[in-house]
Amino acid sequence: MNTVDVDEKLNIDKFNVDEDNAHIVLKQDEIDSHEFQKLIVACPANCYRVTENGEFHFDYAGCLECGTCRVLCGKTILKKWEFPQGTMGVEYRYG
Ligand code: SF4
């Protein structure tokens, strides 16, 4: 049986991170931990995680633009979700 190393596959892709314009922004006032837990499990790029101090952490730099977080939490903890501008964002290799 063949296995797939997800981290190895992700490392093939190239990311042009738009430091001046985040394409995904979370609501900062109150983050629902139950909603955030959904994204920790569902995000294929591991953009959502809890730090060693128990704080919620999100980094859009490795986003694959799959839209999963928008579908799951677009009306709860996400303030903004849009595709990156122009040549920014993920550049897939091998399709
Ligand atoms: S769009 Fe996909 S890859 Fe990007 S943060 Fe949301 S779930 Fe993760």
SSE blueprint:
Elements lengths: L5 H7 L1 E3 L7 E3 L6 H10 L5 E3 L5 E3 L9 H6 L4 E4 L7 E3 L4
Antiparallel strand pairs: 1-6, 2-5, 3-4
The structure holds iron/sulfur cluster.
The site of iron/sulfur cluster has 12 residues, from helix 3.
Task: Give a brief description.
The chain has helices at residues 6-12, 33-42, 68-73; strands at residues 14-16, 24-26, 48-50, 56-58, 78-81, 89-91. The protein has 95 residues and is α+β, with helices and mostly antiparallel strands.
What fraction of residues sit in β-strands? 15-25%
Q: How many beta strands in the DSSP annotation?
A: 6
User: How many structural domains in the coordinates?
Assistant: 1
Please give the order of strands in the largest beta sheet.
Answer: 1-6
Number of helices: 3
Which small molecules are bound? iron/sulfur cluster
